[in-house]
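README: folding subset

This subset contains proteins for which both the sequence and a predicted structure token string are available. Records are stored as plain text. Below is the entry for Glucosamine-6-phosphate deaminase (241 residues), shown exactly as it appears on disk.
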Amino acid sequence: MAEVIIVPDSESAGALVADEIVRLVRERADAVLGLATGSTPLPVYRALTTRLEGVDVSRVRGFALDEYVGLDPAHPESYRSVITREVVEPLGLDPAFVRTPDGSPEGIEHAGADYELAIAAAGGVDLQLLGIGTDGHIGFNEPGSSFASRTRVKTLTRQTRADNARFFDTIDDVPMHCITQGLGTILTARHLVLLAFGEEKAAAIAGAVEGPVTASLPGSAIQLHEHVTVVVDEAAASALL
Ligand code: F6R
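--- output ---
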């Protein structure tokens, strides 16, 4: 059963989760962080910048959840760029220790297996940050994704592309495909921390936390994990019973 923490706002959530990450890094200098992109984790990264001052982060490792396929890594909205801008640079992490799946078409056949090997070689993820899509996706595991899935290429739904169009000029600029850690990959992390803010996430959060465990709502896979913390504001918690 997930621990659900309801906080007044996203800033409080950021502070709470950042404190947990700092505790982890102080305990394990080579901690492995599972990094999410999108808007939701930004308050965590912001809160971490000040909290990590004076903490040795030179050995901290990171793995992003996903990447767009076919988007130039130098594009400002590639997840490589986002992770560099929002996490690696402000927190002073070693860029060589922070990976994103390789979304370049040339290497796509083995990119998923390579990523799985890299996560395993790092000893697995200690703390995995997660956001959730309005359709219940975690990572980019859209409805219908197998709970046993591993890092692989997926097609983004129209809804996810519409949700993410705000980062691009038009919805047509949002890539059609992504490479994402699978639900099975995510479930191997030792601690899952799922965050959500705003009423548009309420149904997805209720389904993930209390609904049936079903591939129709991929976030419900968290119910199969024994150490899950869900941090939500009142609006995102509003459909919980
Ligand atoms: C991002 C990711 C996605 C997002 C989700 C919510 O790496 O894997 O699952 O967490 O799409 O996005 P935001 O936070 O922008 O609402």
